[in-house]
Design goal:
Layout: H1 19-28, H2 38-51, E1 55-59, H3 62-72, E2 80-84, H4 89-97, E3 101-105, H5 116-121, E4 127-130, H6 142-152, E5 155-159, E6 167-168, E7 171-172, E8 179-183, E9 196-200, H7 203-213, H8 219-223, H9 243-254, H10 256-281, E10 292-293, E11 300-302, H11 306-318, H12 334-338, H13 347-355, E12 356-358, H14 367-378
Parallel strand pairs: 2-3, 2-4, 4-5, 5-8
Antiparallel strand pairs: 1-9, 6-7, 6-10, 8-9, 11-12
Helix pairs in contact: 1-9, 2-9, 3-4, 3-7, 10-14
The structure holds pyridoxal-5'-phosphate.
Residues 61-63, 87-88, 90-91, 133, 159, 161-162, 183, 185, 187, 196 line the site of pyridoxal-5'-phosphate (PLP).
Length: 382
């Protein structure tokens, strides 16, 4: 079997670009292409309206949006930030980049997001903020996390990299805390290759963030005509997204309903084709609490143990299905060890990381591809 060519290859994730993005880029190239230009401002307004947020700032990535949020909130040296270990490296890197220390917290079994009870146990007099990650666009127990933040005076920065379009109790993810951070990386529902956004509810905080984003200058105020020249007013960096990339985002937002409908159809077909098999095999399909509304970002299976997950992954790959595991827990990664996190006990994180497998899910998957994936998954047992 191992030497045989697979019947077909089903890629894990492919962005869906067509003549709409090409036309948008061509048109953008006719005008100004720096950041905070007319297209970027339109996209920011459109996102703010649809999220019901005070302000959205486009950034070069979600990683940078998180750094920007922490800088604007004045989180820095001597302080600790609680975040999951079951997350992408960027959550912890953003904390390190501002000079603070990430403290890893276990995840809840139900949502695979930050566990409020474990978070509470790890709060110290140095804790400044919580960073919940909305894994697969599913919010963790935000009632408990917001309550904890309120009682202990902690800021909340949401890592909503995967969360655009998803909701919690009817509210858009990214608008639940002090700052919310989205990713427009090519693997996300809406993409411009690399990009991100910071969502902010407090106008004063938004003002601080727009200065930091523009190299510590008041260029944004200048562009609004509020000052007659712009100058260096604070410490800052360069986090603003070019208008060329904003043009791609604008085209993607135009077709977001189609993107979501296609993703939902793939998810529905997986569910229908795998539900009965999963029950027999002891494999868990994605689920979320009733207060969460999905954006169909990921479809993941939780196998009964690491051995069956690894075997399934190998079978799928051999048959050309580019399924994949997810995060290597950050506390056990080399950099996690270097910052002294290796002896943290995070049992749910370790179990989920060892048993989770993600299936291909993107808007360009055909029904035929999905049926092929289902057929191969059913062969993987449990
Ligand atoms: C949970 C999470 N946080 C952060 C990021 C980083 O996003 P970006 O690549 O836009 O910096 C990702 C991207 O995969 C992610 O999944």
């Amino acid at each position: 079997m191992s030497g045989a060519r697979p019947a077909r290859t089903v890629p894990f994730s492919v962005p869906w670009f067509d003549e709409r993005e090409r036309a948008a880029v061509a048109s953008a190239l006719e005008g100004r292409v720096a950041g905070d230009g007319p297209i970027g401002q339109r996209v920011e307004k459109r996102l703010a309206d649809s999220l019901k947020a005070e302000r959205v700032l486009l950034t070069t990535s979600c990683t940078h949006a998180m750094e920007l949020a922490l800088l604007a909130l004045d989180v820095g040296p001597g302080q600790e930030v609680l975040c999951p270990s079951f997350t992408f490296v960027s959550t912890a890197n953003a904390v390190l980049r501002v000079g603070a220390r990430p403290v890893f917290v276990d995840i809840e079994d139900a949502t695979l997001g930050l566990d409020p009870e474990d978070a509470e146990r790890r709060v110290t007099s140095h804790t400044a903020a919580l960073m919940p990650v909305h894994y697969a666009g599913v919010a963790p127990d935000m009632d408990a996390l917001l309550d904890l933040a309120g009682r202990r005076g902690l800021k909340v920065v949401e890592d909503a990299a995967q969360g655009l379009g998803a909701r919690w109790r009817g509210r858009a993810l990214g608008t639940l805390g002090d700052g919310g951070c989205f990713s427009f990386h090519e693997s996300k529902n809406v993409t411009c290759g690399e990009g991100g956004a910071l969502v902010i509810g407090d106008p004063e905080l938004a003002r601080r963030a727009e200065v930091i984003r523009e190299k510590g200058t008041n260029r944004a105020a200048f562009l609004r005509g509020e000052v007659d020249k712009y100058t260096w007013v604070a410490e800052g960096s360069s986090y603003v997204l070019s208008d060329v990339l904003a043009a791609i985002l604008e085209a993607q937002l135009d077709k977001l309903p189609e993107i979501e409908a296609r993703r939902a159809a793939v998810e529905g077909r997986y569910r229908a084709g795998l539900e009965e098999w999963a029950g027999r095999a002891g494999v868990r399909l994605p689920s979320s609490p009733p207060e969460c509304e999905s954006n169909h970002h990921l479809f993941h299976l939780l196998y009964p143990d690491g051995v069956s997950r690894d075997r399934a992954l190998a079978t799928l790959r051999q048959r050309g299905v580019m399924a994949t595991f997810h995060y290597v827990p950050l506390h056990s990664a080399p950099q996690g060890q270097a910052i002294g996190a290796h002896d943290t006990s995070l049992p749910v994180t370790d179990r989920v990381a060892a048993t989770l497998l993600r299936l291909p899910l993107h808007p360009r998957l055909s029904e035929d591809d999905v049926d092929y994936v289902i057929e191969v998954v059913r062969e993987t047992g449990g």
